[in-house]
Design goal:
It contains four helices and three strands. By secondary structure, it is α+β, with helices and mostly antiparallel strands. The longest helix is centred in the middle third of the chain and has 16 residues. The model has no long low-confidence stretch (mean pLDDT 90).
Length: 88
Amino acid sequence: MEEIKRKILIKLNKMHKWGDTHTTDIRHLSKGMPISVTTSKQGLRVLDKAIKELNNDGWILTKKSVGSLHVYLNPRYSKEILDFIGSN
């Protein structure tokens, strides 16, 4: 679970998705994940749970945009997020 969270945060950080003016469709978070995650029901449940936990912790936020749910990194937690993913 922690590794999935890390991959999600790294992906959003590399895409510069900080703040609600820079969002990505939530469906795109599964791209680039290990095959074992994206091809099994259990893996997809873990991915979904990781996204929900990151959202509940406030590290990622969601908004409706162009008819779908979009996510972005919360700039208020930038230090914690960058510490967690191991980059500065």
